[in-house]
Design goal:
The structure holds two protein chains of two kinds. Chain A is an alpha/beta fold. Chain A is built from seven helices and ten strands. In chain A, the strands form two sheets. Chain A has an eight-stranded mixed β-sheet with strand order 1-2-10-9-3-8-7-6, sandwiched between helices. In chain A, strands 4-5 form a two-stranded antiparallel sheet. In chain A, a hairpin with a 3-residue loop joins β4 and β5. In chain A, α3 runs parallel beside α5 and α4 packs across α5. The two termini of chain A are about 25 Å apart. The longest helix of chain B is centred in the last third of the chain and has 43 residues. The N terminus of chain B is likely disordered. The chains are: A alpha/beta, B alpha+beta. At the A-B interface, α2 and α3 of A face α1 and α15 of B.
Chain lengths: ~230, ~625
């Protein structure tokens, strides 16, 4: 799969020779800034199309060719299969955190009854009735994680979900996140620049290897990271 | 699965199920969106309030202006509709009416007062001058509007306010009428009546009396010499009374216009200033200035001469009077020779009295040069009657006179007046008595009321068409307020156009205000919209977010505008209560108008919101979710 992004001054050509995500697994994608991590996540989230894809498949009870989907089918998959955890939280400012979570749950016809339980586990139960603008960046990220968990989506795409936390808190949050996704059976795909955090919790790590093709073009290829610790496999 | 043939196309149940699920899903998403809209409006309540106020500032003037337009014009039209005089149509002409035409007129009219003549002049208490007596009946809207009932038609009288004031009468008081006729000898019959009601000054400013049409007809019959057993009145040898078309006054010094107005203001049969009249052809000395008094839509009787002289005396002028006739053609025929002349009675009195004749033959005077071509001392004078076009022939003695201009024929003023009455009403000439005997008259005059002011124009046109057939151009146009009604309708039309212009300008402004605000709102909310797209909401559903939000704001602005309209109406009515009174509102909107205006606002707002909301579909979630 290939995708080129950027403007006339700088372009990044993202190439993905092989990328595979197993059910109920934790896949981490690491890479430097501008290497194409978010581009890959957007392609996986079906909000961005690849320029070319030999195969881009989703195996459910049938195999779906994602690169050939019409817009309407992409929307359907996005709604029923994918949850997004954004670096900024991605919460609606005009809803309270509880309303943000319950709204997302209702959209997926999931009961919002588990909100409090998940919030307890993530340590945000006391801020549920606050608006996103009134809580810290870390709490917003935890709220976004809670929202993704309550949605019980088969695929959770997380874009630097711990960027607003210190290392210890990030480790602790990732442990909880992993534990809860194991419980829901969701596949977690996380992009991060924190290689250590990825190595600690991920089942498989992919890394973007970058090199300048010329002055304006950066080539970024996604490859499996051989440094993955065996105990996580 | 879908199977199609050229004639039939049907869908399998599975497809229907899918469509049903899709529809249910769409409506469920709509409920989510509506919940989000209200949450967002609550969150941004200050911004929402500002938006409501700015939209209200566009909508409220539309309601207020429409309310004012409807109120002002509506009040004017209501006033016209309520005032029966606005619906009244009277012809300027008088004459026998065809039964079929009268039946058609009855059908077209809301109420019709039929009578043998337009009015009677009777002596009444409370004024020295004879007053106009008009026919009326129970269906007369003037009576109905004022709650007056002619319970006893023989004894009931209705007075105008000026007459009631001068006579000091109220409803229920006795009121005396005096019937006068002079067929050889003068007879005066007092009639004691009861005041059945008083017509308000707003309806009639003149000194007038109304009697039931039947009583009116009987008095008219008596005045013409007939017997009226219903009132216990005997006949008196029915003869026609002289009628004139105007009065010429001769004065050494002419009163000023202000003095003339004073005279008119004191009440008489004339309502417009007299015009200079040239009598030089008739040999009157230049020191004597002549003025012609002509009534509008009326005739002149002998009593009017007296009251005109009195009015001049009251302002310090001495005046002589002469009768005036409109173009009245008569034929003189003798020995097979026939000449056509115009009747006038402008010879000095001493000239017409100088015949010394005592027989009943009438005397006429023609110009001396005319006498050369018509040298006969005896001739037959004839003229046609307006009634049925029949001719009346009178044997006359013809005298030459140096004072009669060529083309004219002069006669005794009183006899000429009777000829004029016969000319109008139709009559039989009794040569022995030297009098005109009236012939039976049917309906010769009417007052018609249109069913509503909307029907006024057609009724006027119907009566005008008859006037064209039977009278001179000056008398063709009936008396009515059609011009006033037309003016108000025209004004209503102009105001409506003006309002539509304002509405169009406001509509365009409102359209762009809404378009811009929705578009700005989308730009401001693009991150939130990108998140919603990320949740898997369809772009067509996402359009509903700014669209519904805009409609909620428009609804609130409309509610505020209606409230502003109500408050404006309340205060305007309080401020102008002195002018309007308590029963009339300066502003007026009915349910249909409100619904139409609200619908127009919603359509404009929906269109503007929808066009702007389409911008939502251009938001790429990937571009904004990381902002």
């Amino acid at each position: 799969m290939r995708k080129t992004r950027g403007d006339n001054t700088r372009k990044v050509r993202v190439e993905i020779p092989l990328f595979e995500v197993l059910p109920a697994s934790f896949t981490a994608i690491v890479g430097s800034n501008g290497s194409g991590k978010s581009t890959l996540l957007d392609i996986l989230g079906l909000i961005l199309s690849a320029d070319h894809a030999d195969e881009f498949l989703l195996h459910t009870d049938r195999t779906i060719r994602l690169d050939r989907l019409a817009g309407r089918e992409k929307i359907h998959l996005r709604r029923n299969y994918i949850s997004y955890v954004l670096q900024t939280g991605g919460l609606l400012e005009f809803l309270s955190i509880r309303q943000n979570i319950s709204f997302a749950a209702r959209l997926r016809n999931k009961s919002p009854e588990t909100i409090h339980q998940v919030a307890e586990q993530l340590g945000i139960a006391d801020i549920l009735d606050k608006r996103p603008g009134k809580v810290s960046g870390g709490q917003r990220q935890k709220a976004a994680i809670a929202r993704a968990l309550v949605q019980e989506a088969p695929i959770i795409l997380a874009d630097e979900p711990t960027s607003a936390l210190d290392t210890e808190s990030a480790k602790e949050l990732m442990a909880t996140f992993r534990r809860l996704t194991d419980k829901t059976g969701s596949s977690l795909i996380m992009v991060t620049h924190d290689h250590d955090l990825a190595r600690e919790r991920a089942d498989i790590i992919y890394r973007f290897r970058t090199e300048m093709v010329d002055e304006k073009m950066l080539s970024s290829i996604l490859l499996p990271d051989p440094s993955l610790s065996s105990e996580n496999v | 699965m879908k199977k199609c043939s050229p004639l039939f196309c049907y869908q399998t149940p599975a497809s229907l199920q899918k469509m049903f699920k899709g529809t249910v899903g769409f409506f469920r998403d709509c409920t989510h969106i509506i919940a989000l809209v209200f949450a967002d409006l609550r969150f941004e309540w200050i911004l929402s309030l500002c938006m409501v106020l700015s939209l209200g500032a566009v909508f409220a003037p539309l309601f207020i202006l429409l309310g004012l337009q409807e109120g002002i014009i509506g009040n004017m039209l209501d006033k016209l509709q309520r005032d029966p005089v606005s619906r009244l149509v009277e012809p300027k002409w008088e004459g026998p009416l065809d039964d079929a035409w009268l039946a058609s007129l009855r059908e077209q009219s809301g109420a019709l007062i039929e009578s043998p003549t337009a009015f009677l002049l009777l002596d009444v208490e409370g004024t020295n001058d004879p007053v106009n007596v008009l026919p009326t009946n129970r269906n007369d809207p003037i009576l109905k509007e004022n709650g007056i009932d002619l319970a006893d038609w023989k004894r009931s009288v209705v007075l105008s306010t000026p007459l009631a004031r001068s006579a000091g009468k109220r409803t229920g008081d006795d009121f005396n009428l005096t019937l006068v006729r002079s067929a050889g000898k003068e007879e005066r019959i007092p009639l004691q009546m009861k005041v059945a009601g008083i017509i308000p000054i707003t309806t009639s400013q003149d000194t007038k009396v109304w009697l039931d049409t039947e009583l009116f007809r009987l008095i008219h019959q008596w005045r013409r010499g007939g017997a009226v057993p219903e009132l216990g009145l005997a006949g008196g040898g029915a003869v026609l009374e002289p009628e004139y078309d105007g009065i010429i006054t001769l004065l050494e010094k002419v009163p000023s216009d202000a003095e003339y107005r004073t005279m008119i203001g004191r009440g008489m049969s004339f309502s417009q200033l007299p015009q200079p009249f040239d009598l030089s052809l008739w040999g009157y000395v230049a020191e004597q200035q002549a003025r012609l008094w002509k009534p509008i839509n009326s005739r002149v009787f002998e009593q009017n001469f007296k009251s005109l002289i009195s009015r001049h005396h009251e302002v310090g002028y001495s005046v002589k009077t002469l009768p005036y006739f409109d173009d009245f053609k008569v034929d003189l025929r003798s020995d097979g020779k026939n000449i056509s002349l115009t009747l006038a009675s402008l010879l000095p009195k001493e000239e017409t009295e100088s015949t010394g004749s005592t027989d009943s033959v009438q005397h006429v005077w023609i110009a001396q040069d005319e006498k050369i071509f018509f040298p006969y001392p005896k001739a037959d004078m004839s003229f046609s009657t307006a009634t049925h076009g029949e001719k009346i022939t009178i044997p006359v003695r013809v005298h030459p006179s140096a004072k009669v201009p060529s083309g004219y024929i002069a006669a005794d003023p009183r006899f000429a007046g009777k000829m004029n009455a016969a000319h109008r009403q139709g009559a039989v000439y009794d040569q022995q008595a030297g009098e005109f005997r009236p012939i039976e008259q049917g309906v010769r005059f009417f007052r018609a009321y249109a069913k509503s002011i909307d029907d006024l124009e057609s009724l006027v046109e119907f009566i005008r068409a008859e006037g064209v057939l039977r009278s001179s151009e000056a008398l063709q146009e009936p008396v009515s307020r059609v011009a006033e009604v037309r003016d108000i309708r025209r004004l209503a039309g102009y105001m409506e156009k003006l309002y539509l212009l304002i509405l169009s300008v406001s509509g365009v402004s409102g359209f762009f205000v809404i378009l811009a605000s929705v578009y700005a709102g989308i730009q401001r909310k693009r991150k939130d919209i990108a998140y919603l797209a990320l949740f898997g909401l369809h772009p067509l559903t996402l359009i509903l977010f700014p669209f519904f939000k805009s409609l909620v704001l428009v609804s609130a602005a409309l509610g505020g505008s209606l409230a502003a309209y109500g408050i404006f109406g309340y205060w305007a009515n309080r401020i102008f209560s002195d002018v309007l009174g308590n029963a009339i509102s300066l502003t007026r909107l009915n349910g249909q108008q409100v619904i139409l205006l609200v619908a127009a606002v919603y359509i404009t707002a929906s269109l503007a919101s929808l066009i702007a909301a389409v911008a939502v579909t251009r938001i790429e979630p990937g571009e904004y979710i990381r902002e």
